[in-house]
Amino acid sequence: QFNGLRPDNVLEYFSQSPFWDSSSNNAVLKMQTQFNDLQQASYDLKSMVGVEFSVTHQEPPSLFVITKFRRASPTKVTPIAVYYILDGNAYEAPSVHSIVSTRALSSIKQVEKAFALARAHAEFHPATGYSWAESNEQKNARKAALKDIQLS
Questions:
Q1: What is the arithmetic mean of pLDDT over 139-145?
Q2: Of 66, 71, 27, nearest in space to 46 by CA
Q3: Could you give the C-alpha distances from 8 to 5, 24, 46, in angstroms and in order?
Q4: Under a CB-based contact definition with an 8 Å cutoff, are residues 90 and 20 in contact?
Q5: What's the gap between Cα 49 and its chain centre?
Q6: CB 53, CB 67: distance < 8 Å
Q7: Cα–Cα distance measured from residue 14 to residue 86, given in angstroms and rounded to the nearest whole number
Q8: Which of 36, 40, 90, 93 could make an SS bond with 17 (beta carbons 3.0 to 4.6 A apart)?
Q9: DSSP-assigned states of every residue in 3-43
């Protein structure tokens, strides 16, 4: 039932996810104001210190980006994690570190495979040093190419 998600209720929806921190400033304010006539909107999260959640991007009703911050002062906040709600499902966004390290590891694996393939075709002889091991097909193709170049 994600079609009912709006900017004013998406944090309430997110509070039901496993990513919600029940000790966050948002949760504390919700608990403090749930039984009185004062609404949470009358309190300013910026005056509190600690962890808080904020909707930082939205494309209602299908996409909402929620950032978890650590607030040290009214003006100093540090992002801790980023979550998004896409079509009613909450996800944790991967960190830049995990994306870069995964891509680097994948690249290194491919380079490793290329070196292994090259190493399989290299031959070493004490008198001549390293040479490239060619199959008969490769030798014939190279010789034919050299003949074509010489005839031209």
A1: 86
A2: 71
A3: 8, 18, 18
A4: no
A5: 28
A6: yes
A7: 11
A8: 90
A9: GG--TTTHHHHHTTSTT--TTSHHHHHHHHHTTSS--GGGS
Q: How far is CA 150 from CA 144, 145, 147, in A?
A: 10, 9, 5
How far, in Å, CA of 150 to CA of 152, rounded?
A: 6
Kindly give the residue spans of alpha helices, DSSP state H, lying in the chain.
Answer: 10-14, 25-33, 96-121, 136-151
If we measure between CA atoms, which residue out of 23, 25, 59, 62 comes closest to residue 40? 25
pLDDT per residue over 64-93, tens digit each? Answer: 999 999 999 988 999 999 999 999 999 999
Query: pTM higher than 0.85 for the full model?
Result: no
Taking the mean position of all CA atoms in its chain, how far away is CA 46?
Answer: 28
User: Measured between alpha carbons, how far is 85 from 91 in angstroms, rounded to an integer?
Assistant: 6
The tokens for 107 are: 């690249």
Tokens of 137: 């097909």
pLDDT digits (tens, 9 = 90+) for 2-52: 568 998 899 999 999 999 999 999 998 888 877 776 555 546 788 889 999
Phi, psi (rounded to 5 degrees) for 128: -110, -15
